[in-house]
């Protein structure tokens, strides 16, 4: 279903990728399950194999459920087209494999998502790609690290675990001078709060597991490309045989419809929770780019339309029993990986791996996700747990 560009984002979220008339009037696009797609004639079979034909010749190349999500996400991000993957990391790794070859140079921010760093340092290096990390706050000065053979400049804003905001337009300008592709992990903000292609990005990735699915019940990734990167992404995805299951796709389409309502609530609760934690004497620093005073605040104000519910907290140094007491006293925050669902999470994190600028904070680092519970209850629960820490100070 084509949605006029004059409509606002919330309207796109409700209607994009839907075509009830094609599915017996069903409001939601059904979960199409199948591998074999039959043709009614030899002519139809041959037409389905032509490049660009919207009808797939095999289930691996997509179903109406697949295309519904891909179409909706591409429209939201402002890209040319999108492809789905079985996880966010799969979207990252296969996007990189689509663009890079032996002898290329690739730049990654020092605050990049840990598994992305691991892939770059192991698989890409093994492939003969020259991997280099850069200060995420470098901005236009990244031009000094861009080489004639730089093929990919990866950005993730804000950065994983430590939430540095990157000057994506300045970095993109330097990358495009040598015809490099700018690849972004846009999971934190989603296309609601950051429009990657308006800021010079060529390929945008989201772990749809997080806010798009929104209910912690499916694993999924999406990569959206502009016209320049689309052919490479599409070919590599087909070469590697990547696809996603129909039930996960259906759950992502379901979650997409309420994304705006949920994300605004996550934003509001996350800000209130972060502000309350920042005032507690056991907190050394809250890492949240939407807080005035954060090093990335001005860039966040300039480039973002909102914030999600995810941030980090650096605590003052405490002994291990104190940290155990803190987590034992939390009633509403679960300890678990991922985020973006309706439940609140609080996760202890190891000291971030850094190649450029070492992490110097010595106290525990917590990653906090504000869910959809009452914010007053979340604040009370967190303050009570922090007060237990204070007894060890």
What does this structure look like?
The protein has 393 residues and is an alpha/beta fold. The chain has two domains: 9-257, Aspartate Aminotransferase, domain 2 (3-Layer(aba) Sandwich), CATH 3.40.640.10; 259-390, Aspartate Aminotransferase, domain 1. Helices cover 37% and strands 15% of the residues. It has 13 helices and twelve strands. The protein has helices at residues 9-15, 42-48, 64-77, 88-99, 114-126, 168-176, 190-193, 227-240, 246-257, 259-278, 297-303, 320-329, 375-390; strands at residues 81-85, 105-109, 130-134, 150-156, 181-185, 203-206, 221-225, 283-287, 310-315, 333-334, 344-349, 365-369. A seven-stranded mixed sheet has the order 1-7-6-5-4-2-3, sandwiched between helices. Strands 8-9-12-11-10 form a five-stranded mixed sheet. Helix 3 packs parallel to helix 9 (246-257), helix 4 (88-99) runs parallel beside helix 5 (114-126) and helix 4 (88-99) crosses helix 8 (227-240). The model has no long low-confidence stretch (mean pLDDT 92).
Question: Roughly how many Å is the radius of gyration?
Answer: 22 Å
Given helix and strand content, the structural type is alpha/beta
Strand content: 15-25%
Q: Helical element count? A: 13
Name the CATH homologous superfamily of the largest domain.
Type I PLP-dependent aspartate aminotransferase-like (Major domain)
Largest sheet: 7 strands, mixed
How many discrete structural domains? 2
Return residue spans where pLDDT drops below 50 for at least 5 consecutive residues: none
Give me the strand/helix succession.
HHHEHEHEEHEHEEHHHEHEHEEEH
Helix residue percentage: 25-40%
